Amino acid sequence: MALSSDFVTEPIPISLIAGRYLLFDVDVVTYLRRNHHICGSLIGSIPQSPQQNVFFGLPMQLMPEEAKLLVEKEVAYIIDDKAWHKQTLFSTLQGADKQAYLESLRSTGLNARKAALHEARKKTENGLARYAAKKAQELVVSGIKDTPRSGSPGTSLNDTSSITDDSTSLFEEESNKSERSSSTIKSSAATASTPFAVTPTTSYPTSSLPQNPSSQSDPPVASSYALFAHLHFRDYYIMPGLRFGCNYNVYPGDPLRFHSHFLATSYDYDQDIPMFDIIGGGRLGTAVKKGFLIGGEDPEAEGSKSGDKVRTFCIEWGGM
Predict the structure, then answer these.
(1) Beta 291-297 vs 262-266: how paired, if at all?
(2) Where does 222-320 sit in CATH, by number?
């Protein structure tokens, strides 16, 4: 079965808003996580639970290192969202393009409505089936007690009038049921033709974005980018390391499946590292069952990319 994220085309636009690199498309988020080990951090609220801060939703914020890495690999490019809206979007989305965009939103809303109706219909059918089975079982259990005996003293020919009255009321109930069912069908048909109100995660259609963006400057990053690129090249997943007071948390696989193995901190190659930092990092890493990884870029080493010149060391505290 093909996933929607399989149809994502490169390069991918990354929105630059107020100095932050954001992704608003869930398919793009899934694609980058699966194919390029880019995890990011979800910072948006969940519509149904906006007051809690345990689980977050779109947009996803990328670290500057992640954005720079994607630009260097020509997987993505940066769009200044504010300038793009002012210069391009409001002048190009006119006439037929505007109608096509609105029609795409309506089509998405209709598909969402049909899916919701289909799910509700399935639940109703399952509930009716369970109810019918329960009633049939009750009739089987109580059928012997309710069956009238032949020749009982209470039966006579005068009971035909009651039978006629019962049959008349039965036909009236059937006609009422048919009227109700027809009205229900009409209302459901009208509901199915009314699309859901869909709020897109972006305010512009994908087709309006530049397909061949011109060369642009790389996002500014900290000096720890060399260590980030070095670890990413070796297929590690990398998350921000603020929780443990380091630059990065390094995972051997997807963070949804693995615990981090290293607390990574970057230093300049000739920088003097205080012994207090080494001991503190080693003890902290060992206490949380991780290794304290330090690394720096050797300016004299051979390599075409910054990640190729990095040397790393792992420290563990052996006295605990």
Answers:
(1) parallel
(2) 3.40.1350.10
